Amino acid sequence: MIEVIGIRFRKAGKIYYFDPDGRQIIKGSHAIVETARGVEYGLVIKGNTFVPEESIIPPLKKVIRVATEEDARLEEENKVKEKEAFSICLEKIQRHKLDMKLIDVEITFDHNKLIFYFTSDGRVDFRELVKELAAIFRMRIELRQIGVRDEAKMLNGIGICGRPLCCATFLGDFQPVSIKMAKEQSLSLNPTKISGICGRLMCCLKYEEEVYEELNKKLPNVGDIISSPDGTGEILSTNVLMQLVKAAVRKKENDPPTIAFYSVDEIQVIKAKKAKKQQYTEEVRDYYEE
Length: 290
Prior knowledge:
Elements: E1 2-8, E2 15-18, E3 30-35, E4 38-51, E5 63-66, H1 69-96, E6 101-107, E7 113-119, H2 127-137, E8 140-145, H3 148-155, H4 166-169, H5 179-184, H6 191-194, H7 209-218, E9 225-228, E10 231-239, E11 244-250, E12 258-263, E13 268-271, H8 282-287
């Protein structure tokens, strides 16, 4: 086991581990640490704690110091400079007529680097833009192209559920989401109903996927022939969460069918309908193609 603290540099960003170097650093305080991008100011999400060595990616860098009031003041000044840099860069982009959308600006705590995040449909030749920005700010300039999900995470917004976006409030990393998850949960495959404001599949489809997979294992498929307390019949529909099936059953072969609901414990599959591979329309496949 090794002693670490967890630090986050952006809201809902990934948590990085650092060596407290013998200090007791409490959750909610700020610390100055060295990262691959330079010296940065971060929020302590996890105080001193012990984690298995295999969960750490070496080398584990040490905390430089606990942030002081002066550090906090410098961080606030950096926020103001980031807004100024955003306005200047936006003006330069328009003047050069570059096909790119500026999303955010970040300056490292030690003023070693200025990072501009942008989105674009293709490659952008921004060499002249970088030269002009370097001449203005007198520091290293990095233009980083990001995807639509990262754009939504940085800008935040309101999802179709009426709440702030998950990615911008508490999700540290993006998890893979597939159309199969929507199918497992019996959701519409209409892209407008299962997409977030980023245009990709909603992250929340992942939250209950394991539960739905487990519950679906216990349910028969639509079209299966079953035996029930009221006779033999065919499954018309299923309710995953309530673990119920709707079936048309007959006491005898020539009796008219009766529609009834049964729990999975009350029925037994006699003949399973041959599973068909789920076919998605070309429109849906193209819509979610990365």
